[in-house]
Amino acid sequence: MGVLDFIDTELQELQAQGLYIYIRTVESPQGAWITVEGRRVLNLCSNNYLGFANHPALRRAAQEAIERFGVGPAAVRTIAGTMSLHRELERKLAEFKHVEATLSLQSGFMANLATVPALVGPEDVIFSDELNHASIIDGCRLSRAQIVRYPHCDVQALEDLLRREAPKYRRRLLVTDGVFSMDGDIAPLPELARLARQYECILMVDDAHGEGVLGHGGRGIVDHFGLHGQVDVEIGTLSKAFGVVGGYVAGSARLVEYLRQKARPFLFSSAVTPPDVAACIAAVDILTESTELVERLWANARYFQEGMRQLGFDTGRSQTPITPVMLGDARLATEFSKRLLEHNIFAQAIGYPTVPRGQARIRVMISAVHAKEDLDFALEVFRRVGRELGVVR
Ligand SMILES: *Cc1c(COP(=O)(O)O)cnc(C)c1O
Question: In the β-sheet with 101-105, what is the strand arrangement from edge to edge?
Fold first, then answer.
């Protein structure tokens, strides 16, 4: 008996339940079509909403940054790792988002781990949507505050909990995903803002799937609802629509100054590299200049989702380009994904624990770089596989 033998048992269990994740290897740049293990496939599962991951302007910016700044930040930002590039990105992001300031971090995941424990502690309470992203959940746990989960987007249930629980604590944080990444629905942010004011909560929204997607020219969920100045903390990622890697916090100048002093992933982990930052700056520049890519993304999403519904597929409660194709059983979803790949379509099955048990699905991600012919091809293959597996008639 070895001390790590439990690993074999657990992995076998995952396989038996259809929950084992098979990680595919991509051998080409990201785009509408990619090479996966030797096969040219239509890519329906990236978060590269606007095609920035392999955009010529971003590539050029990254190359020039390597020539000017090299490849590494060489220290944590508080010691010697803050370059003029990081400052420029933070300033441009703040202008783009119409906030006073932003703080760049290594990833969206890190941004949540950095922010929640800096804002609340053991004497405080967090009200958290039950479907919030894992990084929010982990940030909340790290803070050691009391966590009150409320039913998904249920404003009435939240208010009942606030009325009962909020007065018992020193500080209150209300935190939600902006766009829920597995369902594509949008948090009821105007109502949450009203409740946050009424019950004196810090309001925090993670806009990872909203920026570059929602609002004017992709300015995010706060812009989408016209709530500028009413959301205390916004978390962002630079790895989805922005196409690169990194995360950030957006809000008031005093919030950002406080996080520079207190946020542990900022103080104890190095910054993203010069080429990453330069590419992100190029992405913000493009979005600041033109809304064209965001409009194309939405036109593609509407076209595909309408087509899927006409075929009889259940696309859940999506309000965004995230398109869940609800199948229920995890093994059915895995088989569906496998057959899609046989027809040269790359779309991953998602099961527990990423989504609740019994709600397995194929998650289709639409991008501005898909051509109409690509979407027609996808609809045709979904129809064929859907019939083979008895999902649609
Ligand atoms: C993807 C995602 C993250 C993580 O972002 P990374 O930059 O990839 O670490 C955080 N929050 C939400 C809601 C996400 O969807």
Answer: 101-105, 247-251, 233-237, 202-206, 172-177, 125-129, 146-150
How many Å from the N-terminal Cα to the C-terminal Cα in the chain?
A: 52
Q: Is 239 in the pocket of ligand 1 (CB under 6 A)?
A: yes
Is 209 among the catalytic positions?
A: yes
Q: Which two tokens stand for residue 151?
A: 């039913």
Catalytic residue among 181, 318, 337, 367: 181
Q: Name, in order, each residue with C-beta under 8 angstroms of 67's C-beta and a sequence gap of 6 or more.
A: none
**Residue 363 phi, psi dihedral angles, 5° rounding:** -105, 110
Per-residue buried b or exposed e for 348-357, using 16+ beta carbons within 10 Å of the residue's own CB: bbbbeebbee
| Measured distance CA(301)–CA(297) in Å, rounded | 6
What is the distance in A from the centroid of ligand 1 to the CA of 184? 14
Report whether pLDDT(18) > 80. Answer: no
Place of tokens 């700044």: 69
Statement: the pTM of the whole predicted model exceeds 0.90 = yes
Ligand 1 pocket residue status of 107, Cβ below 6 Å: yes
Give which of 207, 1, 251 is closest to 119, Cα–Cα: 251
Q: Which residues on adjacent β-strands are paired with residue 203?
A: 174
**97 catalytic per annotation:** no
pLDDT of residue 120: 98
For ligand 1, atom 6, the nearest C-alpha belongs to: 108
Residues 147 and 129: beta-carbon distance below 8 Å: no
Q: CB 386: neighbour CB atoms within 10 A?
A: 20
pLDDT at 385 over 90: yes
pLDDT tens per residue across span 175-224: 999 999 999 999 999 999 999 999 999 999 999 999 999 999 999 999 99
DSSP at 25: -
CA torsion 26-28-33-36 (nearest 10°) is -30
Query: Where residue 145 falls among pLDDT bands split at 50, 70, 90?
Result: very high
Query: Using CB atoms within 10 A of its CB, is residue 168 exposed (0-12), middle (13-18) or buried (19+)?
Result: exposed
For the stretch 65-95, pLDDT in tens is 999 999 999 899 999 999 999 999 999 999 9
